[in-house]
Amino acid sequence: MITARPKDYFSFLGLPRKLNIDMADLEKRFRALSRQFHPDYFVNAPAAERRQSLEQSSYLNDAYRTLKNPSARLEYLLGLEGLALKGAQEASKAVPPALLEEVFALNEELDEVRELRAAGAAAEEWKPRLERARAPIDAKREEHEAQLRILSDRWDALVDGGRENAEGQETLRALRERMLERSYINNLLAGIERELAT
Description:
Structural class: mainly alpha
Number of helices: 8
Order of helices and strands: HHHHHHHH
């Protein structure tokens, strides 16, 4: 008989709500639960158990896919903690204050590069300018990735210490802001890539 599934992916896989997960352990837990819930083992079971097996197996696959990916894991945790990101449109709505200067400079450079291209300038003239404009955005991305690692480690330490209350909420809010900024940075870099590809 299959029991009801826990309320979240972490507890379903028997893991604490941490951001740094041992991938080998996650894989081991996933394989063990896959064997337990796989529909092939319920072929001769009553219809209700077969249906429940399919549901559990599907939930397990979703849990594994989400927790295996660091960004998806963080977004999922933020959602569990009431700080869900509202999709790509939230990230692209307004320029995060920490990026205003870089975005302004990048947009000016992109406008000038587009003018050069429209005037028929050779790629050798405008591509190096795009590459130079990209450098501060790349640096911001690296800075954000480092901040995400530090904040993730802080969250995990709070979970280990059983103190994910007020300080934990502050850490999660900071993680959420970094995620929004990361999305915005990735959108900027994708825009530069599109310009370079044309």
